[in-house]
Amino acid sequence: MQAIxxxxxxxxxxxxxxxxxxxxxxxxxxxxxxxxxLWGHLGWQDIKQRYRRSVIGPLWITLSMAVTAAGLGLLxxxxxxxxxxxxxxxxxxxxxxxxxILGCLTEGADSFISNEGLIKHLxxxxxxxxxxxxxxxxxxxMHNMLVYLIVxxxxxGALTTDGYLLSESPNAVPQPGIxxxxxxxxxxxxxxxxxxxxxxxxxGIISTRYRDIPQVIxxxxxxxxxxxxxxxxxxxLSQRFGEGHSWAILIAExxxxxxxxxxxxxxxxxxxxxxxxWAVVGGVTIIGWALALIAMRNYRARISYWV
Length: 307
Hints:
Blueprint: H1 22-34, H2 36-50, H3 59-79, H4 84-109, H5 116-121, H6 127-154, H7 156-159, H8 185-209, H9 213-227, H10 234-241, H11 246-253, H12 256-269, H13 275-299, H14 303-306
Helix pairs in contact: 1-6, 1-13, 2-6, 3-4, 3-6, 4-6, 4-8, 4-9, 4-12, 6-8, 8-12, 8-13, 10-11, 12-13
């Protein structure tokens, strides 16, 4: 009987997970942005499908926003004893921007869940589905901007007056009125939309793994809405608590949604510009995209199994 020779052990090297790669994460984002015809077409189809067989179609977006902004703007202007010609546009633009931010949070969390069929059968970058969500919300924002244009025409005289006030509070800050700084609304929206991209990617990945996240986001956004100066202004806090209570203003300042809304609302209404809003939004943008890239690197390959 021949002796069985011992098998020499074969040296092994650590196995690196093929899906966890920075290059693949960046490649997915680059290819997703390049596929603008795909996510652009899908976004248009979402709007058409939502209002299919409707008489006025996507104009329902504009009509619903107009009714909401007008009703609440008139109501809260009476409750706070604020001048309607300046407070109603303030509420209207706040609602328009908040609607976009809210959509990025709630619909962004469902970016991959709602595209389960396409993810499993269409060999496309995952970034396409996040950009589809942001593009759809951008189209809805464009429809809502018609409400802003109508309000601007109606109250143009009040909004272009140098030193107009948002409230009758003794502490009310005079606003410079609409001028050339309105052009800052373009980079402001682009910056907000850029944040919508990382929100859809990051929360979309987390929500795909943990399906309770969309419900948590929906509950928290209701609280954030009432804590954000949309239907009220910081002037009212000064009137209610006095100038010595800086903690009241700090509540608004610690709310990131306030800074996002203000960088777009200020140029559209000729409000006093404060560059610290841009600094906060810029910091959130950097941190948010860093987290989104980490999530894409670690879990991009697992999304097709989680949906």
